Amino acid sequence: MTTYDIALIGFGGVNRTLAELINTRGEKLRSELGFDLRVVAITDLRLGSLVQPEGVDLSVALKLGGDNETFAAYGGSADTNNEAVIRNCTADIICEATFTNPDDGEPAVSHVRWALESGKSVCTTNKGPVALRGAELSSLAEQNGVHFEFEGAVMSGTPVIRLAKKMFAGLKLNGFEGILNGTSNYVLGRMEDGLDFDAAIKEAQELGYAEANPAADIEGYDVQLKVLILANELLDAGIELKDVHRQGISSMAPEDLRKAARAGRHWKLVGAARRNPDGSVTAGVSPVALPLDHGLAGVSGATNAVSFETDLLGAVTISGPGAGRVETAYALLSDIIAMHAARTEVAANA
Ligand SMILES: NC(=O)c1ccc[n+]([C@@H]2O[C@H](COP(=O)([O-])OP(=O)(O)OC[C@H]3O[C@@H](n4cnc5c(N)ncnc54)[C@H](O)[C@@H]3O)[C@@H](O)[C@H]2O)c1
Ligand SMILES: N[C@@H](CCO)C(=O)O
């Protein structure tokens, strides 16, 4: 039985939930998936770092989090020590789930780079490294014979990237449009229900949807990163963040939304990209009042959906959860499953 030793970088909603899944469903994972997962290191900005090659007692680690509690109380350190932990721990796979920094992706870009350079695979839900340094990091992974997987960076646990790459083979993708941020979609819906902005955002935060700074959700920075990822990963656009124009929903008022609903339209924050006749790609994020018969108009709550424009099939839509601790923790697990499948295939062909 293969055992993958993993390190959790960032021990917030997503990585804690992955630890809970491993702690409570380990036997089921083993019997269903054919491998074991063992957490050998955890770091967190607030909790410090804990490195235990024999395996961390997750029941203990998951209880941590009280005021001023750090890993120092359990044989670890109050210091995060990310570079030393990432480069030197015995993990096969680094699970990076720290804050997304939409400006330069740091320090997560460095976390991923240190892991790949030290021969460790990486799975991440952090949009920064994927959007801003994706090509460079994928190349570094290949050079080092390891994997860089990031299914959770767009649409959380909904496997849109893998589905599009594997199931759209033979099709030419000419563009896409989608609802790619669960928080803003949830907020728009709750404002239609009559809540004000702040109350709706608070609910999204309590549900674990929102970024550490929810302005990233509301002002469109999160969708801008996701549009960049999809455009470069699936349309081979070769564009940069500055090429994706961005407008958020902070200027919208509940009355605007209710007026549109009465007129048979729903305001949505839509991310889109399209290939131009000269082959260039135009991309952006903006609020749009969609007619009720539009394929995206009925997408509600934290659900996401993206419609791809294809040459042979016309529009093909993928829809599913776009945010949520469990849904996103599953994305990391799906990345590890993909790594295991690739490793098993290589072994079978050896
Ligand atoms: N929550 C979701 O629905 C969702 C979905 C898809 C992607 N994501 C992305 O996944 C990542 C994690 O999301 P989350 O909901 O767990 O966020 P979170 O804020 O709950 O947890 C992030 C954790 O990372 C820690 N951290 C931040 N910087 C660190 C550093 N330099 N070193 C070590 N630890 C650090 C924080 O202390 C925190 O505990 C984010 O980048 C987010 O954008 C989240
Ligand atoms: N804050 C993001 C998490 C998923 O990337 C959202 O609401 O969609």
From TrEMBL:
Catalyzes the conversion of L-aspartate-beta-semialdehyde (L-Asa) to L-homoserine (L-Hse), the third step in the biosynthesis of threonine and methionine from aspartate. This is Homoserine dehydrogenase. L-homoserine binds at residue 211. It comes from the Bacteria. Pfam families: Homoserine_dh. Residues 159-337 form the Homoserine dehydrogenase catalytic domain. It comes from Arthrobacter globiformis (strain ATCC 8010 / DSM 20124 / JCM 1332 / NBRC 12137 / NCIMB 8907 / NRRL B-2979 / 168). Keywords: Amino-acid biosynthesis, Methionine biosynthesis, NADP, Oxidoreductase, Sodium, Threonine biosynthesis. Belongs to the homoserine dehydrogenase family. The active site is at 226 (proton donor). PROSITE patterns: HOMOSER_DHGENASE. Its EC number is 1.1.1.3. GO terms for biological process: methionine biosynthetic process; threonine biosynthetic process. It catalyses: L-homoserine + NADP(+) = L-aspartate 4-semialdehyde + NADPH + H(+); L-homoserine + NAD(+) = L-aspartate 4-semialdehyde + NADH + H(+). InterPro entries: HDH_cat, HDH_CS, HDH_short, NAD(P)-bd_dom_sf. NADPH binds at residue 127. GO terms for molecular function: homoserine dehydrogenase activity. Its cofactor is a metal cation. It is an enzyme of class 1 (oxidoreductase). Pathway: Amino-acid biosynthesis; L-methionine biosynthesis via de novo pathway; L-homoserine from L-aspartate: step 3/3; Amino-acid biosynthesis; L-threonine biosynthesis; L-threonine from L-aspartate: step 3/5.
